[in-house]
Amino acid sequence: MTTPLTFPTGFLWGSATAAYQVEGAAWEDGRGACIWDTYARTPGMVHEGHNGDVACDHYHRYAEDVALMEKLNLGAYRFSVSMARVMPDGRTVNQAGLDFYRRLTDELLARGVVPWLTLYHWDLPQALQDEGGWPSRDTAYRFAEYAGAVHDALGDRIRFWTTLNEPWCSAFLGYAEGRHAPGVTDPVAALRAAHHLLLGHGLAMHELRARDADLSLGITLNFANITPADPEDAGDRDAARRIDGMSNRYFLDPLFRGAYSPDILEDQRSLWPDDLVVDGDLDLISAPMDVLGVNYYSGSTVRGVLPEEANAAADRARAAGQLTANVGSEHVEYVPQDVPHTGMGWEVRPQGLTELLLRLQQDYTGPAGVQLYVTENGAAYDDVPDDQGFVQDDERLDYVRTHLGAVHDAIEQGAQVQGYFLWSLLDNFEWAYGYDKRFGVVRVDYDTLTRVPKASARWYAAVAGSNRID
Ligand code: PNW
């Protein structure tokens, strides 16, 4: 890419975290157990039995962290609210939990950082899981009540509200693959969870809109650009269609078109519970949004395989760190590409982000007048700190630089992208990988909890401060 690249005036430069990954203070001020507390304590589920009890201790160190954001020229902070802090039993409001998010929000506003609130980033109260979790329709209603309670406490000071982060992960990693909490491996439960997550989104949208018509409301989805190994091969093209359906269209179509993708419904026909979708659900789910949050890390090249080869192909994909949570579309081979890989083993494919943003703009958000924000993008690498704890993380810096170039390309070609949130501000609890994988642009020493900005943070601060890449 040729530099400098200047971004549109007002482009929002931010960073993102999530409650369970950074807060710690897991048993303070009345917080209830969430499904990740339980999952992390289940032997064999999380790397070396790590959990979020302390994490980055952001719950106590939020003021220091917000000061750091200001120093790094960040214009916005995307954080999530822990439902288990606010409704420990899934029903009763815990004022002390809400108070924390008020303190955090006030600190952000005092330092000129726009608060960007996500209501659900995977930490369902265990009490609701015990009543059935997301496969149970009631959970959607509990979530909407929770959305209303959070708005009652923070609605006067926050403009940007996201209902769910990556419902695909909650539903398919959580209930089909079992690689995320609650660790269920039942494809039908996953389809139920996916629908009730969408319903919860729709009901929460309704609650929030009713309270304040001027909020900027939306959802964040994870996407992956999918390419057929051989575009001339009908089997490969069909594999790409199916995986694109599961990875990208599964939530987009109900949200923006009011209907599940017909081809995916067909693939899942033998599994789909016929009492799942109730009249009126899709109207709620497709209520107009203002913002679509785009999380992008990588893409995949796929090839069709015969159904009888499906299990072997899935095992190879799992061994290669690929995602295999493709209910109804298991007979696919992921074809590794000769490109650099991040510390997660994910292929570095920046151009996929340009293609994705343009496609979203053209097929979904543009016609609906919805603004795009990249709500997550970033990379884990094996950092090597010096004596001072400083990390010269050239690979991460380069990953962010090339992906920002891809965002810039998309904007030049007409995509309405209004901002970018780097994942993540801090090294944090990387779900099943525990503290083993580091995504932060700021290093966290987990013994002392000291924060030290890495080279990527210094570079990103310069970009955010000047609105351009030199
Ligand atoms: C996102 N995958 O999760 C989440 O929103 C973050 O909480 C997380 O830390 C970040 O990406 C990095 O992993 C994902 O397997 C988890 O494709 C897994 C996948 C994608 C996103």
Task: Summarize this entry quickly.
The mean pLDDT is 96. Helix 14 packs parallel to helix 15 (394-412) and helix 15 (394-412) packs parallel to helix 16 (455-466). This protein has 16 helices and 13 strands.
Largest beta-sheet details: 8 strands, parallel, barrel
The chain-level structural class is alpha/beta
What's the CATH architecture name? Alpha-Beta Barrel
How far apart are the termini? 11 Å
- How would the global form be characterised? globular
DSSP strand (E) fraction? 15-25%
- What is the CATH domain class? Alpha Beta
By DSSP, the count of extended strands is 13
- How many helices? The count is 16
CATH topology: TIM Barrel
Q: Averaging pLDDT over every residue, what do you get?
A: 96
- Computed CA radius of gyration, to the nearest angstrom: 21 Å
Portion in helices: 40-55%
Trace the largest sheet across and list its strands.
2-3-4-5-6-7-9-10
Bound molecules: 4-nitrophenyl beta-D-glucopyranoside
GO molecular function: beta-glucosidase activity
Protein name: Beta-glucosidase
Organism: Ornithinimicrobium ciconiae
Keywords: Carbohydrate metabolism, Cellulose degradation, Glycosidase, Hydrolase, Polysaccharide degradation
Describe it for me?
The protein has helices spanning 19-22, 35-40, 58-71, 83-86, 95-110, 126-130, 138-154, 167-177, 187-211, 234-257, 262-267, 281-285, 310-319, 350-368, 394-412, 455-466, and strands at residues 5-6, 12-16, 76-80, 114-120, 160-165, 216-228, 291-304, 332-334, 371-376, 417-423, 442-444, 451-453, 468-469. α15 packs parallel to α16. α15 (394-412) links the parallel β9 and β10. The chain has one domain (5-469): Alpha-Beta Barrel (TIM Barrel). It has 16 helices and 13 strands. The strands form 3 sheets. Strands 2-3-4-5-6-7-9-10 form an 8-stranded parallel beta barrel, surrounded by 6 helices. A two-stranded antiparallel sheet has the order 1-13. It has a two-stranded antiparallel ribbon with strand order 11-12. The chain is α/β, with parallel strands linked by helices and 470 residues long. It is globular. The structure holds 4-nitrophenyl beta-D-glucopyranoside. 4-nitrophenyl beta-D-glucopyranoside is lined by residues 18, 21, 165-166, 169, 222, 295, 297, 323, 376, 423, 430, 439. Belongs to the glycosyl hydrolase 1 family. Substrate binds at residues 21, 121, 165, 297, 423, 430-431. InterPro entries: GH, GH_1_N_CS, Glyco_hydro_1, Glyco_hydro_1_AS, Glyco_hydro_1_beta-glucosidase. Keywords: Carbohydrate metabolism, Cellulose degradation, Glycosidase, Hydrolase, Polysaccharide degradation.
